[in-house]
Amino acid sequence: MRSQAPTAGTLRRTLITLVAVCLALLAPGGLPAAGAAVPDEPRAAQTLTWTAGDSISEYTSAPTTAVAGETTIVFENSAATGNTTGMVHTLTFDTFTDGYNKDVNLNLQASPNDENSGKWQATVNLTPGKYRYFCAIPGHGSMVGELVVTDGGGEDTTAPEATAEVTGEQDANGAYLGSAAVELSATDDSSGVEAIEYALDDAAEWSPYEAPIVVDALGGHTVRFRATDKAGNTCAEKSVTFTVAEAGDDTVPPTVTASLGGEQNDDGEYLDMAMVTLEAADTGGSGLDKVEYAVNGGAFQAYTEMLHVQTVGEHTVSYRATDKAGNSSEVGTVTFTVVEKYPNPDPVCPELDSRPIVFIGEYDTHVPNRVTADGCTINELIEDEKAWAKQKAFLDHVRSVTDELYADAVINREERRLIRETAKASGIGTPGQNDGYTPIFTGTENSFSKWEQVGGGSFNLNGDGSMTSGTSVDGMGMLWYPQARYGDFSLKLQWRDDAPGDGRANSGVFVRFPDVRDHPDESRPEWVAIKYGHEVQVFDSEAGDQYKTGSAYGFDLVNHGQAGVTPKGTWNDYEIRVVDQHYEIYRNGVLINEFENSPGQLFEPPRADDPGTDGRQHAEGYIGLQVHGTTDVVSYRDIRIKPL
């Protein structure tokens, strides 16, 4: 049963709304809206100008330093600054990231086609410290930078603070055995640190510090160091002294072993991912210096934590260890194969459902969703999403399936009982619960042709029954399903992050948005969904946009730790349930967010033309999939929906 108590997100948004109302009442004459042009206002003593053009990865120009006090901020995104496409950008000051000033709430939106021809300004009061700014338009997340503000006197006259830390294995007298590493750091609360320099022993020249200084020459040593800030102030020279002693007559190489972990099939192949753990020890006395590994004949690199190998295929991981006396172990190897856990589409499987637990309808059986002999999961054989005309027909089917699973030793007697009792309690097949889910994308050309691409980007149909966002058409856009509008519903699908390299894909599922064709207030079809529907975010990166997977974008935040992040290349089951104005988001069977779409909530960070939740009070709407650009590669499959 769903609790009626207000969620933390609802309370937070209510508080923000009340504070905004109070500020508006207290301010004489009220405050100008974020992004409002003030062309005739006298400018403050200091003016800072940002410009933008066609790029979605960086501003054309931006200041890096300023002095505290009243400041005129100018943001121009016009034909004069290189915008030839009419692209919209914003200049938004970050008020949520720790480590930055949060006292300036600035959000200027500009494009060459707006009423001010793309040039806007506002007056703010800057305080000493650092501000982070960015473009709040989806897909423009790499347009970001820092502004360092010095004190109101106009000049930073305070030198930075510099410190040193010496690390390494020590003997009873404190001498470092074999080598010592000196790590330098500096802080500056005003203009910021520009550089750190050091000199070892009697060196006359200063060297730039870039990484810990490793000293292995025997005897006493002194490292002198200093730091300079961006205003040119240099702190007084400091030093740290230490001794490097003989590590001993260590001629014994260290030992290193590898162990493998992860879920395996009957052939010993690892499903979706293999985890490689290296453990090393040194008994020769000098101490362990480093452990290294290489994958499939590549270059050796430092081992710091468990290695996750996710690419399908056979792999060989080589490894070695070195002690502080220079002895290296022989190179060891471990070979294994990674296969896809749930190959899809599998024509033998009646449904696709890779959630880790067996669910029947909304009910959790607490039985692991194991893979059966034919490659299908238990969930897929239960067929709880099918339209069952009678409950007895469904229960007879479940009884037959569980008998076979029990005979094949896939489940035990107690698990068979749990599945059957849960099936009966689910009510599937009873009046009102016998409609089932309707597929709207099955992986066929016919089902794909019923979707329509608007805006930038693209989606392409794959031979395995999935669709993947394209890598050749730039821009942000949406693939939407114009065949039907939905009121209360349960939408289920699977998605996979296929971003290249070390990146993570940024995408989302749009729901409850109005018809994008000829909308009276928004000419860009993809922006109709952005401004008048809700985007349920798909984004597993630790960095970048604050809204992670499961967020109701712009309104209810799910952070990285709450998002149920999975390795890249993994299929995720996603369910979005909307009843009245209550949203529930499930990932792999786990509820990761609830959002109440009550009126009066404002989009955060602010967008000047966003209608907030007042513009999103729809009783029904369309379904769409977002594409951000050519590097945010994401795949979708098995999209189905059921009215509630």
Q: How many beta strands in the DSSP annotation? A: 39
Rg over CA atoms, rounded to whole Å, is: 30 Å
Q: Residue-averaged pLDDT, rounded?
A: 87
Low-confidence parts, pLDDT < 50 over ≥5 residues? 1-43
Quickly count the helices: 6
| Strand coverage percent | 35-45%
| Gap from first CA to last CA | 15 Å
Shape: flat
Structure description:
- This protein is mainly beta and 644 residues long.
- It has six helices and 39 strands.
- Strands 27, 29, 30, 32, 35, 36, 37 and 39 form an eight-stranded antiparallel sheet that branches. Strands 2-8-7-4-5 form a five-stranded mixed sheet, with no helix packed on it. It has a five-stranded mixed sheet with strand order 10-16-15-12-13, with no helix packed on it.
- Strand 20 and strand 21 (301-302) form a beta hairpin.
- The protein starts with 7 loop residues before the first helix and ends with a strand.
